[in-house]
Amino acid sequence: MSALWVFGYGSLMWRPGFPFDAQSPARLEGAHRALCIYSILHRGTLDNPGLVLGLDDGGDCHGLAFRVEPGAESDTVAYLRRREQVTDVYVETYREIALGDGTGQTVTALTFVADPHHPQYAGSLDLEAQLRIVRVCRGQAGANIDYVLNTVEHLEALGTHDALLFALAERLRRGAGDRAET
C-alpha cells in the first residue's frame, strides 16, 4: 500500500492534528487558495459568518504536504472528515501534487476542495468585502483575523506569495485595533 499524503493550504499547514512522518512544500495545479467559504462554526456563526479558505477552480496552490505515519491512515481520514466536513462544504478528493523537496516527486494527496453548489460557498469576494467580514467575525476556533494572519505567516515562511491574501493581511494588520472582541 502506498503512503497517504494530505495537502494542506490553510490551517492544516500550522495545525495538521494527525501524526505524520514527513512534510514538504507542495504545489497543486488546477485549483487556487481563496477565502471562498462562509464559516458558520470555526471562524464565524450562523448570524455572523466568517470566511475560511477553500480550493477553488483554476490556477495553482502552494501549501504543505504531510505523509501520514504508517498505521494512522484510517484514523487520519476519519479525523479530517470530522474537522473539515462539519457542514459538507468541501468535496473530499485526491489530487496529484508536486513535492517541493527537490526530488521532483509527485504524489496523490487527500485534500478538500470548495463545493461551489453549497450554500456556504461565498465565491469570489472583493478585498473590501473580505476585509469587512474577517475583521469582525469570531467562531469556536477564534477570531477570523487570526486565521488569515496565521495563514499568511505560514505562507511567508514557505516563501509563497498569495497576492490577494497578503493584501488582505496588510490591511488587517494596519487596522488590527478595530478587531471585534465578541
Describe the secondary structure blueprint for this structure:
Blueprint: E1 5-8, H1 11-14, E2 20-39, E3 50-68, H2 73-84, E4 90-99, E5 106-114, H3 127-136, E6 138-139, E7 142-143, H4 144-158, H5 163-174
Parallel strand pairs: 1-5
Antiparallel strand pairs: 1-3, 2-3, 2-4, 4-5, 6-7
Helix pairs in contact: 3-5, 4-5
Any overview of this molecule?
The chain is α+β, with helices and mostly antiparallel strands. 29% of the residues lie in helices and 36% in strands. The protein has a five-stranded mixed barrel with strand order 1-3-2-4-5. A two-stranded antiparallel ribbon has the order 6-7. Strand 6 and strand 7 form a beta hairpin. Helix 3 crosses helix 5.
Q: What labels would you give this structure?
A:
5-stranded mixed barrel, Hypothetical upf0131 protein ytfp, alpha+beta, 36% strand, globular
